[in-house]
């Protein structure tokens, strides 16, 4: 599918400048939080110790992993972005970028082109300008023409038109900023438990459509005819050929919600199972929105051209203060590549009617990946392979303009309809207060914000997501040449945040993700969140025989829980493990801040320990793993992020402590099951201790299931025991 879309477009690549690697690019290489550079991975489990030793020696010259700790993982002294000061691995990139911006060299997403400023495709500027183009008459699609001519009624029922044309009143806006939301529940066949909440809308409970005719979805041409072909790969025998919507059951229910312009939070996205069908559905919605919005502008251009001079008409308010309408946040370049491919396929009616895609070759070079780069012998879980497929660089942003039968990649932001970016890509262009060179006016009139794979940003840098949300839909500081007579009143009133639809997809429920949905989304149409509770938790996937002791700690509020956990750990838990008999103890720590605190405490107390985090060089990792396996070090401090990005099997664990419950519930069973690789002597007694508080309800439910969670949070007892793996 991707191949033929490559042959398509009359290639119009206007840039063939000499590639030059900037300082920033070199820096990016060192920041890769990726398994790409692990070709000589010490992962083949059958390898002998000596091989590991020798590999460690060859590797100690320094590796290109993640922003790393110096000297093989000793104390961070300098040169490393250490989160103790609240700095992150990406900050170094940002500082370099600021420097480069100051030098006027590069604010583009991919610096390898050595271009000045954001890349501007001057050649295609007029061709893609919304101001100077008009609606083309299509002779072929007489049905659509008919529909367009007598369609004022049909058009007024179009959800896009209804949503964007609604005129809010002052008092309604006031209500939205003061009143609490009211909510109602509903159960849908495929999505399960839904919570609808809103302030203005009376709860007309949305019903799940059993069947949807693709012709009733108000899809803009050519989507009605291209969608069935593009989505064919996901339609199994489950979907009877007679189903006229060409949606999978999941897509049908999600699209049904998206198409009403309500906000949506779906926390069950899974890279292995439904990730791609969800991507198809939101791409269809985003493209449908842009095509309708642009068609409205072009048709009004023609009407204005034909009206008598001197007639003043307020009927043509059809745009925002800036052109970008859709912002899509995705974690890796590979995701942007897939989205653009879907757009191209949705716009190409058939083999004969290819669309012209400008700068496609450059896009393929910068967002594609070389399959040979991947080391051949890595054994990783399949969910890991699915998440980290293709080009996993996490610093990019690209503007896309769409006009009738052509599409322009690398459009300057103010001439783009859609912006696809990573949180870091947005962070470096938005900048921070006090910086000379920063820009966020292009976010002023975003009508659809799509945040996909939100859970991954918890592993990258959640601050970037919050920073973006704070800069959405603000009044622009500059007019950017807009014709104010064409700007919708809602934008002039600074009410665009009440019209923005946010679609949030994640693999899990998490308080920080919930908070973005609850506190940064103001859509007057209200919100829909899917809230299914896990009946059985991931503990049921633990196959080793193991007692799991869950210990509840008390904390007054959310802020005090961090200190309470630390005190509880050093007062109650650690003393039981200090005895030499409790050797081979792995301590799993989700938060980097907690890890640093524990590491400093262990040093101060002179405990016999080693540690691995996402910044540890490969040599340090080998050393720590070997010391731990041989029992030369009693404790191993181990961060969740390291596990997320590497997924190594740690051998030799006999005692496990979860300092906090894992963000991803399947990591719980995965870490427990690593004990399978430990030689179990006759009298081997393994242990597992888990710390939790009432603020960990969602994570706890994902591990032990909802019923046990309720018991464990309400019970007078604060120690609970589970045993797995009994025959």
TrEMBL record:
<dbReference type="GO" id="GO:0000462">
    <property type="term" value="P:maturation of SSU-rRNA from tricistronic rRNA transcript (SSU-rRNA, 5.8S rRNA, LSU-rRNA)"/>
</dbReference>
<dbReference type="Pfam" id="PF22916">
    <property type="entry name" value="UTP25_NTPase-like"/>
</dbReference>
<dbReference type="GO" id="GO:0034511">
    <property type="term" value="F:U3 snoRNA binding"/>
</dbReference>
<dbReference type="InterPro" id="IPR010678">
    <property type="entry name" value="UTP25"/>
</dbReference>
<comment type="subunit">
    <text>Interacts with CAPN3; the interaction is required for CAPN3 translocation to the nucleolus.</text>
</comment>
<feature type="region of interest" description="Disordered">
    <location>
        <begin position="1"/>
        <end position="162"/>
    </location>
</feature>
<dbReference type="InterPro" id="IPR053940">
    <property type="entry name" value="UTP25_NTPase-like"/>
</dbReference>
<feature type="domain" description="UTP25 NTP hydrolase-like">
    <location>
        <begin position="261"/>
        <end position="528"/>
    </location>
</feature>
<feature type="compositionally biased region" description="Acidic residues">
    <location>
        <begin position="37"/>
        <end position="74"/>
    </location>
</feature>
<keyword id="KW-0539">Nucleus</keyword>
<dbReference type="InterPro" id="IPR027417">
    <property type="entry name" value="P-loop_NTPase"/>
</dbReference>
<dbReference type="GO" id="GO:0019843">
    <property type="term" value="F:rRNA binding"/>
</dbReference>
<dbReference type="InterPro" id="IPR053939">
    <property type="entry name" value="UTP25_C"/>
</dbReference>
<comment type="function">
    <text>Component of the ribosomal small subunit processome for the biogenesis of ribosomes, functions in pre-ribosomal RNA (pre-rRNA) processing. Essential for embryonic development in part through the regulation of p53 pathway. Controls the expansion growth of digestive organs and liver. Also involved in the sympathetic neuronal development. Mediates, with CAPN3, the proteasome-independent degradation of p53/TP53.</text>
</comment>
<feature type="compositionally biased region" description="Basic and acidic residues">
    <location>
        <begin position="1"/>
        <end position="10"/>
    </location>
</feature>
<feature type="region of interest" description="Disordered">
    <location>
        <begin position="299"/>
        <end position="318"/>
    </location>
</feature>
<protein>
    <recommendedName>
        <fullName>U3 small nucleolar RNA-associated protein 25 homolog</fullName>
    </recommendedName>
</protein>
<keyword id="KW-0217">Developmental protein</keyword>
<feature type="compositionally biased region" description="Basic and acidic residues">
    <location>
        <begin position="75"/>
        <end position="86"/>
    </location>
</feature>
<comment type="similarity">
    <text>Belongs to the UTP25 family.</text>
</comment>
<keyword id="KW-0597">Phosphoprotein</keyword>
<dbReference type="GO" id="GO:0032040">
    <property type="term" value="C:small-subunit processome"/>
</dbReference>
<feature type="domain" description="UTP25 C-terminal">
    <location>
        <begin position="538"/>
        <end position="722"/>
    </location>
</feature>
<feature type="compositionally biased region" description="Basic and acidic residues">
    <location>
        <begin position="303"/>
        <end position="318"/>
    </location>
</feature>
<dbReference type="Pfam" id="PF06862">
    <property type="entry name" value="Utp25_C"/>
</dbReference>
